[in-house]
Amino acid sequence: MMISAAQVLFDLDGTLIDPAGAITGGIGHALEVHGIEDPGPASLNALVGPGLAHGLASIPGVEPELIPALIDTYRTHYLERGMALARVYPGITELLTALAAAGVPVAVATSKPTSLARLLIDQQGLAPLLGGVYGAPEAESAAATEGKEAIVAAALAGEGMDPATTVMVGDRRFDLTGASANGLRSIGVRWGFAPPGELEAAGADAIVHDAHELAALLLPATTRTKAGTLTTETQTGTTTGAAR
User: Fold this and answer.
1) Which UniProt keywords are given for this protein, alphabetically ordered (predicted)?
2) For residue 145, what pLDDT is reported?
């Protein structure tokens, strides 16, 4: 199977880049500083994907008035320590290189604030392979009310992408529902932070387990043959719904 995509939108954390504990560790640090009990690994992992203000509000003991201070503490920790832990997932650089060689425009739609997303992308050396970067508003009051749907819409408008020929690739239900709300097909990736069954329930058009499978969906075989390590397998991913 191949999903014909003239353009591709990618989520960032959990899709292109492995935070390697930078996000969950930073949130845990912020909770400890402000005297909030650690909710445990599963609850912290669930915070990777939605906007941070929205996710923090779901933690027992976090009152609305505390959220701005928690976010400030988290971001300070992230910039000073966490960001350096992040790594590009295996095969992603090669995939982005192959998409560029094939002339497929790509951009990023992330719930991370745009400025932080750009810093992370620059640090990881991906900036030359990506188009625009569209993230959450810098002001938390705005970010708390705007979901992934608004970010995907901004990316489509900013890049001049046609929803009918654009695919969203992400690791959480927020990416997939944000795509659906804007008329895009979506591909869920297994290597991120979705709990079992989430990608299927969110209606992903296809689900992949590694960059090889993702390349097989997005790139014609002739292009995959030129993509270095992406040619070692010809897996086709798992389809979960009819193409639309």
Assistant:
1) Hydrolase
2) 46
User: E strands along the chain, which residues?
Assistant: 7-10, 17-18, 87-88, 106-113, 133-136, 166-170, 185-189, 206-208, 238-239
Coil, helix or strand at residue 140: helix
Query: Range(s) for CATH 1.10.150.240 in the chain?
Result: 22-85
Q: Count of alpha carbons within 13 Å of 13, Cβ hemisphere only?
A: 31
β-bridge mates for residue 169, sequence order: 10, 187
Supply the pLDDT for residue 239: 41
Residues 6+ positions from 209 with CB-CB distance below 8 Å: 189, 190, 191, 235, 237, 238
Task: Give the model's pLDDT for residue 19.
Answer: 86
CATH code for residues 22-85: 1.10.150.240
pTM to 2 decimal places: 0.81
Residue 42's pLDDT is what? 83
Residue 243 has pLDDT above 80, yes or no: no
Burial (CB < 10 A; 0-12, 13-18, 19+), residue 228, is middle
Q: Does domain 7-18+88-239 have CATH number 3.30.428.10?
A: no
